[in-house]
Specification:
The complex is a heterodimer of chains A (232) and B (121). The longest helix of chain A is centred in the last third of the chain and has 14 residues. Chain A is globular, with a radius of gyration of 17 Å. Chain A has 9 helices and 10 strands. A 6-stranded mixed beta sheet of chain A has the order 6-7-8-3-9-10, sandwiched between helices. Chain A is of the alpha/beta class. Chain A has a single domain, classed as 3-Layer(aba) Sandwich (Rossmann fold). Chain B is mainly alpha-helical and 121 residues long. Chain B contains 5 helices and 2 strands; from the N terminus they run αααββαα. Chain B has a two-stranded antiparallel ribbon with strand order 1-2. In chain B, strand 1 and strand 2 form a beta hairpin. The longest helix of chain B is centred in the last third of the chain and has 25 residues. The relative contact order of chain B is 0.11. The chains are: A alpha/beta (232), B mainly alpha (121). At the A-B interface, helix 6 and helix 8 of A face helix 2 and helix 3 of B.
Chain lengths: 232, 121
């Protein structure tokens, strides 16, 4: 199987603080991969480099065999960990923006997702609750027919019912031809979704492997392994 | 569904399906939900369900018909054997627990018969 992402000796410094330390990582295509780690472990930094929002200090990273750039941005659909739409917009405006911006945006898929999330195009961004924001953003991101979906904390701060809806939407829209990278520290809620998991600690990979193999090997669920690694 | 055992998810789902077969909630020859449907219901990765079905197939409990789906075996012998195996596991666990709190074989038999009699009344 080929790799959608290959990372070699990746380092990122913010002035004298090291966020990623000589990271090596390959991610197979067609998989749902969880990147797990507490706040400040380097998850978002890694994702920002992957999506071209930050430049690495050292090392190499390729997405689908290409260096991060115009091509990779056209095949990567990215859900940031904070809101990226303007308050003056209505959902309709956000929809138009995405349609204009991304050639792979699938209108039908978006309509279906809005319906599923019980959102309406006439709603104002300003008036949305946190859970609704997350649902809308995810609907936009999943409506692209991308090769790689990168979801940064998709369920943080969302109530349990909305959380279930978001998980359903992710499962419904996952297909074998695309890959997904999901960061989270809410391991319990998401671990059943992952093929593979990667544990990040202080900018380094401390453990990685197939989720089921790790459960078998350690006799624990991923959530318990997480607590073991990070719970000192 | 919550998965709390210390086992891989696919094994826990296998056990779930097995207990449904044994208890008659699913009958021999019945079609199992599609991988996608089942993964939605349980909120697990579709690949996990795929693996579950593969392993069940290896144990001859289900069979796949191309383009049709996955079906429970029609072989009553296999289902009976499964039922017996599951009973064996439950009883073994029970005996281990009873021995832990200090009961010998004869006492265990006595207690079990007493309980069954009580339930019958």
């Amino acid at each position: 199987m080929n790799n959608i992402i290959e990372i070699k000796n990746l380092t990122k410094n913010y002035f004298n603080k090291r966020a990623l330390d000589n990271l090596n990582l390959d991610i197979e295509s067609g998989k749902v991969v969880g990147i797990l780690g507490p706040n400040g472990s380097g998850k978002t930094t890694l994702i920002k480099i992957l999506t071209g929002l930050l430049r690495q200090t050292k090392g190499e990273i390729t997405v689908d065999g290409h260096e991060v750039g115009i091509y990779t941005k056209s095949i990567v659909s990215y859900l940031p960990d904070r809101n990226f739409l303007y308050n003056w917009m209505k959902i309709e405006d956000a929809f138009q923006l995405y349609k204009d911006f991304y050639a792979d945006f699938d209108e039908k898929k978006f309509e279906a997702l809005l319906d599923f999330m019980k959102l309406d195009k006439s709603m104002k961004i300003e008036s949305l609750s946190k859970g609704m924001h997350e649902k809308l953003n995810l609907s936009l991101v999943l409506s692209r027919n991308a090769k790689l979906y990168v979801l940064d904390e998709p369920i943080a701060g969302v109530d349990p019912v909305a959380r279930d809806q978001i998980l359903d939407a992710i499962i419904n829209n996952y297909n074998e031809n695309s890959s997904m990278i999901i960061t989270t520290h809410l391991v319990r809620d998401m671990e059943n979704l992952f093929d593979d998991v990667i544990f990040l600690k202080d900018g380094e990979v401390v453990l990685q492997g197939s989720a089921e193999a790790l459960r078998e090997e350690k006799g624990k669920q991923i959530d318990d392994i997480y607590k073991e690694i990070f719970g000192e | 569904m919550e998965f709390n055992d210390n086992l891989p998810i696919y094994i826990q789902i296998m056990d779930l399906i097995k207990s449904r077969i044994v208890s008659g909630q699913i009958n021999g020859g019945d079609k199992l939900p599609s991988v996608r449907e089942f993964s939605k219901n349980l909120k697990v990765n579709p690949n996990t369900i795929q693996r579950t079905y593969q392993e069940l197939e290896r144990e001859d409990l289900v069979f796949t018909q191309r383009g049709m789906g996955t079906f429970v075996t029609e072989d009553i012998g296999i289902i009976k054997r499964l039922k017996k195996d599951m009973a064996g596991t439950i009883v073994n666990n029970f005996i281990v627990e009873m021995e832990k709190i200090g009961f010998g074989p004869n006492e265990i038999v006595e207690i079990v018969s007493e309980c069954i009699e009580k339930e019958d009344k």
